[in-house]
Amino acid sequence: MRNVKITLIALALASGTTVAQGKALREGDRYMCSWGAGTAARAQELKLAGVSLYAARQKIQRYKFDKSWMRMMAMGITEQTYDSPSRLKPTAVRASFYEECVRYKLARK
To answer: Signal peptide: which range, if any (predicted)?
Structure first.
């Protein structure tokens, strides 16, 4: 049953990606979605490895970010990831986050 759910999620993500690619997305938005997806995937890796939220926050604080908005965004994404009961693999979390972010950005236009 679990494999069926994962397969359905993957198919939904794949079909949604092709629809989203048909519309224009700014390079900055694409970068933000990609960066956020990577952050969510890393947070999921830490969560599945048994690292506490406190330790994950400490790792974020030690990391040097390129842009000023990234640190707080990384904190928020990490907290949301830890609050979620999801046990999906990090690659699935990355794909899901990216798809939802692109969908959100396109809906705002």
So the answer is: 1-20
